[in-house]
Amino acid sequence: MMGRKRDFRYYVKRTFFYSFLLLLATVCVIPLYWMVRSSFMVNTEIYSMRPFVFWPKEMLWENYAKAWNSANFPVYTLNTMIVVLSCMAGTCLTSAMAAYAFSRLNWKGKKQCFALVLSTMMLPGSVTLIPQFLIWRNFNLVDTLWPLILPSFFGGGAFNIFLLRQFFLGIPRELDDAAKIDGAGALQIFFRIMIPLSKSAMVVVALFTFLNCWNDFFGPIIYLNSKEHFTIAIGLLQFKGDYGTKWNLLMAASTLSVMPCILVYLFGQKYLVEGIALTGLKA
Hints:
The protein is mainly α. It has helices at residues 2-38, 43-46, 62-70, 73-103, 110-119, 125-138, 146-149, 158-169, 174-181, 186-197, 199-214, 218-223, 232-235, 247-278. α3 crosses α14 and α11 (199-214) runs antiparallel to α14. It is globular, with a radius of gyration of 24 Å.
């Protein structure tokens, strides 16, 4: 009897647990469903509540063509890809180099410098917003893509440095000693040993950088003024006018902008879980 009661309680708990997870998943999926649904409708059908239209009877695929052509979307996509790929290269390279210096090299003041780097994570972005803007303005780089790209080549961010440092600490130091015996220097050890063994952690950093840069709205709206320099995040604002909003085209453009993020996440999900799971094995 006790075994049956325990089994019953176990199944009840599991039922409530998975029901709760299903409820949370539904809440997260509803905005995505609403966006995709609305992208195939006309504006009047989107506002229809009585009766509520769960899915359009006639799917207007031409909304995607209109959204792609009406707001100079190819230029926005090209600018976004330039920023994203450049930031991914700069972040992965410089954050890995900083993490290597903090984890494998011995130098005076290393702990103090690492604590200073981590302390920058507690600074709100609004604190450094005006000084950064003044710096870029003095270099005459406002209304260009450089203010969005160049910061990634100066360390790649404290979080990425911390993530890679913890991963590097989990790699046996005997590999470094063996490479030094063979005559390898610090850079050779970094590029030939550390980077190949840290593929999963590097993919995690690349994924986070891709998602952050692709969805970045704050930076482009501050530094970019000309439409030929717009990224997708602020290019979507072109569908919103003073006297109305083309919601169906905006939803179609938003769906197109979200698809790369979903594909990249599905491709890198394995490395994302592996990289985070293996990070922090050593303190």
